[in-house]
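Researcher: Here's a chain I'd like modeled. Treat it as a single chain, no partners, no ligands.
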Amino acid sequence: MTRHLISIADLDRAALLALLDRAQRYVARPGEPVVRNRSLEGRTVANLFFEASTRTRASFELAARRLGADVLNLDINLSSTAKGETVRDTVATLQAMNVDAFVIRHAESGIQRMIADFVAPHVSVINAGESHLNHPTQGLLDALTIRQHKGDFANLVVAIVGDIRHSRVARSASQALRLLGVKELRLVGPAALLPEDGVEGTRITSMDEGIRGCDVVMMLRIQKERMQAGSIPDAAAYHREYGMDARRLALLADDAIVMHPGPMNRGVEISDEVADGPRSVILDQVNNGVAVRMAVLETLLERK
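Model: Modeled as a single isolated chain. Structure tokens:
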């Protein structure tokens, strides 16, 4: 594994499995004592989030602190970027303060790769969300969640449902699932929200057809912030055509699980009874996010 994590495509199958195995050792269910060590003591991790985030930012902070690292959360709205400073200059300034890893979320494509090419040889860059292209730690935590509930990937039929065209989560999840050898991957949604390229899978516009017999269904929200005005679907109509509700649960395999990367729009892509029901593993995904990010940080930084 290289010293950066920009995309799932940067990993081979062995590296991906090694991260999942390490992450599993850090999983602690709510109410259990969390796993801590001092493996990153003396290291500093800077979280640079140029887009809003709850789950990803909080889990990276918890992950770094549980490994003993110092953590800097930069408030972008109060930083010098608000005065016109470039992202590169901001990173250079923090690097001069002995930051060892930059966790970066940005709406513009290519920022993380550019910073990875710029930083000093001892510094790591982790992509925490890039435009509509990449969200590798989300792909890893989704794969970990599926493995916990389903074991082997070889016989799984997985459907990703919703606004796949604008979803970095879908791209990273599909890359991880392909690498792990799922039997079938279906991309389900309105034709206008299916990807033109960049995501492998069978494209299906009928929700009922697309999810029938699936072992895993991953619901996605409509990415309104990435759509042009006037192209956002009507919420009620979308829920009728593509929402996951109790009726559609009956179309899945008997032991199927339902996933969602969050934030959820209840009553649009998913109903309350499904989101809070026994088939939902949504909070498991959140829980696994801390463990996965611990594994990524430790793998990248312990080598130095």
